[in-house]
Amino acid sequence: MGIDIGKSLSKPVDLLQENYGLFIPALLPFIISLIGGIAFRGSIFGMHSIGMAGMGAMIGLAGLLALISFIAALIAQGAIVDMAYKQIKGGSPGYMEGINAALGKLGSLIIATIIIAVGTFIGFILLVIPGLIWLLLVAFTIPIIIIENMDGIEAIKESINIVKENLGDVLVFLIVLIIIVAIVTMILSLIPYVGGAIASLITTPYTAIALTVAYLDLKGE
Fold first, then answer.
1. Residue 126 banded pLDDT, cuts 50, 70, 90
2. Contact between 142 and 78 (Cβ < 8 Å)
3. Is the dihedral of CA 140, 10, 16, 219 positive or negative?
4. Among positive and negative, which fits the CA dihedral 204, 209, 210, 211?
5. Which of 38, 144, 166, 182 is 20 to 30 A from 2 in CA distance terms?
């Protein structure tokens, strides 16, 4: 069916203004990012005095924060997709409804993300471009898991099929989306300490909703 790129990039703003609850699932990654940023800056200034044991503890803490952040981001994206889909269909979804939907599919989200990460790593080893093509092909995996109730592998296959059928539209849409997100992130990152976290709070729901709207366009909904 193709993507109405203008609608796919402007509709998220409308939905966010109609339902501020769409920001709530992104609060947990926001808080983790905020804590991580502050802790990282503090650790740099105090690194000379913590010793090897302290450095080991900090590395372990950083790893734990990264794992928690990874899971929180998946839950947030899944919840926002679920909420946006129901809102587009005329519902009034609450944030707990979206979070519960994401938690119910967390296993599929994790499996899909791991497969995507491995494919991206291999693709980037093979001179970068295969990795970018892979990311393009799997762009709609999370919306498909949430909306179509598919498992991770099925959703990846479905995303690949739908992107291959609409390659030009998807490529243009993703390029413009990435540019918008990059500009917002760069501007907000100028805010000391909390800029990156604030950028994440805004771009996470925007990106998830934009992908949802674009996917529904491709399905003709």
1. confident
2. yes
3. negative
4. positive
5. 182
User: Which burial class, exposed, middle or buried, applies to 176 when counting CB atoms under 10 A from its CB (0-12, 13-18, 19+)?
Assistant: middle
| Average pLDDT rounded to a whole number, residues 117-136 | 89
Place of tokens 């203008």: 6
Contacts of 187 (CB under 8 A, 6+ apart): none
Residues 6+ apart with CB under 8 A from 132: 123
The CA radius of gyration of the chain, in Å to the nearest whole number, is 18
Determine contact, residues 80/15, Cβ cutoff 8 Å.
no
Which among 84, 79, 86, 139 has a CA at the least distance from the CA of 104?
A: 79
Flag whether pLDDT at 29 surpasses 50.
yes
Q: How many CA atoms lie within 13 A of 142 on its CB side?
A: 32
- Is 29 within 8 Å of 73 (Cβ atoms)? yes
DSSP letter (8 states) at residue 128:
S
Distance CA 104, CA 124 (A): 32
65 contacts: CB under 8 Å, gap ≥ 6: 32, 35, 36, 39
- In tens, the pLDDT along 146-190 reads 999 999 999 999 999 999 999 999 999 999 999 999 999 999 988
- Smallest CA-to-CA distance from 98 within 78, 72, 126 is with 78
Q: Rounded to an integer, what distance in angstroms lies between the CA atom of residue 159 and that of residue 201? A: 26
Answer yes or no: are the C-beta atoms of 78 and 211 closer than 8 Å.
no
Boundaries of every domain in the chain: 5-219
